[in-house]
Amino acid sequence: MAPNLTGPAALNLTDAVEGTLADFLAREIAALDEMDPALGGFARTARDCVLAGGKRLRPTFAYWGWRGAAGPEQRVEPVLPAFAALELLHTFALVHDDVMDGSDTRRGHPTAHRVLEAQHAAAGRRGDPARFGEASAVLIGDLCLVWADRLLGAADVSDAVLLGARRCYDQMRIETIAGQYLDILGEAEPGSWSVARALRVARHKTAAYTVLRPLHFGLTLAAPATAKRSHALLDAYSGYGLGVGEAFQLRDDLLGVYGEPAVTGKPAGDDLLAGKPTALLMLAREMATSAQLAELGCEPRTEADVQHLAQVVADTGAPERVEKMIEERVAAAVHALRRAPIDDVTRNMLTGLAVTATQRQA
Questions:
Q1: Which among 87, 105, 246, 311 is most buried, taking Cβ atoms within 10 Å?
Q2: Which tens digits make up the pLDDT trace of 301-350?
Q3: Taking CA 257 as the corner, what is the angle to CA 255 and CA 261, rounded to the nearest 5 degrees?
Q4: Are 20 and 80 in contact (CB under 8 A)?
Q5: Pairing of strands 109-110, 105-106
Q6: Can you say whether the dihedral through the CA atoms of 283, 286, 287, 290 is positive or negative?
């Protein structure tokens, strides 16, 4: 049973989401175990991806979007499955993203396709272990996406409210996939990219499904209590969500080059190795001297090359510009909350989240 979260700070939200996920996954794994023991093992690998940690930002933003709309006295238990479903959607995106990027680690642990590759090799199965790992990881991502749908359907709300939430959820998924496609397209066509296009990718790939749509999702789950305030809340959440979401991705751009691997759980410089046209790299190209621009055009092949390229990017002044962009977006987000018809506790929590989500080290 999830803890009651009607208190003002909802301090047990993360624990409640974890508990909801653990209970749901236990039931799903048991059902697959009955089909075939191999499926149970496959499902446990998926479970490990879901429960491997993380900041649980998406359920948190969804909760405060709901709380600001529904008010402090409403019980969260009926909508908690919907919030937890966002973590299953997130796992789907992460597992597929790691396959597309060929990443070896996530949160300091081997990525799903590497775990499955190792399982294949250890079992002495036929075929290429790497190919098996990638194919199986795609299926893990697919399974998490279906699980997310199933858990969302467990929310104890009216059919009308669930339909409204589902529309928002579907839009979130479309934007995530669209942003991901633009992300991989940018790696294939770096010469056609720009700062504006990099920010467009950030808006769809990260801002929408990390902050903006979870807030909207929470708002829809609070209906019909918010009918008189829905437009004002939607406007405030949109301004806040876009600002914090873009700043979140800009921080990711910096961490992808200058983050500490022991903290981020991923090697530094992966974006540079992949040639990913992030806003940071696009700004560096705009601000570079002719000599720096020539160096930025070189493809790094070794760790020393990556470190040198990171220094060239730093020398252009682009990281400082990105820090300024983060600061501006957080300020705009906080300003959007000032006119929001929400209680002070929600306003203060969202203000704090704007800072913690964008000034993080991982």
A1: 246
A2: 888 999 999 999 999 999 999 999 999 999 999 999 998 999 999 999 99
A3: 65
A4: yes
A5: antiparallel
A6: positive
- Digit-coded pLDDT (tens) for 174-198: 999 999 999 999 989 988 899 999 9
Q: How far apart are CA 104 and CA 107, in angstroms?
A: 10
**Signed CA dihedral, 25, 27, 30, 32: sign only:** negative
- DSSP symbols for 136-187: HHHHHHHHHHHHHHHHHTTS-S-HHHHHHHHHHHHHHHHHHHHHHHHHHHHH
Instruction: Return d(Cα 57, Cα 2) in angstroms, integer.
Output: 18
By residue count, the chain amounts to: 362
Tokens of 112: 């799903």
Residue in the block written with tokens 């966002």: 86
Over 80: is that where the pLDDT of 263 sits? yes
Q: How many CB atoms lie within 10 A of CB 199?
A: 18
- Determine whether domain 13-59+79-154 maps to CATH 1.10.600.10: yes
What is the value of pTM for the model shown?
0.93
**Tokens in use for 344?**
């002070």
**8 Å CB contact between 313 and 279:** no
Distance CA 316, CA 38 (A): 53
3-state secondary structure of 349: helix
Intervals of CATH 1.10.600.10 along the chain: 13-59+79-154, 157-362
* Paired tokens of 355: 């800072």
Range list of H helices, the chain: 13-35, 37-50, 57-70, 80-101, 112-123, 129-152, 159-188, 195-202, 213-221, 230-258, 261-264, 270-274, 279-287, 290-296, 303-316, 318-338, 344-358
In this structure, CATH architecture of domain 157-362: Orthogonal Bundle (1.10)
